[in-house]
Amino acid sequence: MADHLSRPDAGASERFELAGVDVLVDGAGPDAIVMIHGWPDTHRLWDAQVAHFRTRHRCVRFTLPGFDLAKPRRAASLDELVALFRAIVDRVSPDRPVTLMLHDWGCVFGCEFAARHPGRVARVVSVDVGDHNSPEFRRSLGAGALLGVVGYQVWNSIAWFLGGAIGDGMMRSMARRRGCPTDPRAIGAQMGYPYAMRWFGVAGGLRTIAPVSPPRHPLLYVYGTRRKTKWHSPEWLGVLDRSPGCAHQGFDTSHWVMIDAPDAFNACVARWLEPEARDG
Predict the structure, then answer these.
(1) Helices and strands (H, E) in the chain, number of each type
(2) pTM of the complete model
(3) CATH of residue 245
């Protein structure tokens, strides 16, 4: 793996590269929050969270392999993604487990990392994707919602296969229809490979992914209530209510809770992460 690191003073920013992925670290403190985005975003999704949490934590973020339009197109397998996350976690926090802050596909891939390496994770903040592979979630989707999910996910898969200007146009069109706040200039067809993994087995597919329910770690689930199709079952919220250290909170937002309501989101997460700060 390529590995280049600058070592600034505590509290400043640093950058290093692992396996062709640029990793940014901001802030100081003993605990690291590793932030993993989803479709069709980049590490910039977490700008407001880094600004808030960097005073008490080290905020670690990166753009998923294949999602950086300035770099060559590639589809990373589940094993490759988990290995990348492990390398990043071991580099930024070799002696302490980290907090994962996850959104969208980041929830899928991040929870798989937590399942395979439970000792490297202390707790998880999962945003708007809950028990996505549970029987209860599958049953909670009506025929119309299921058809809608299949439709947009296969669309994104086809966009990935096509690539080029046509694929980019398809991807940006779908992002616009789904209300994505990401700058369209930062969205491209190469971001669609997770959907091609899901539906067409690209890069080994997702057949071996571990179930996410019940949670293996203390988990805060934050979700937007404006979505017609929720990415959690009603039972998932009950599971969290009964699981020690777990909690859930809905916000009047879209799928992008951290962008629609950054101050409320940050405050909610801080209360859960930092009870000593709340009580003091």
Answers:
(1) 11, 8
(2) 0.93
(3) 3.40.50.1820
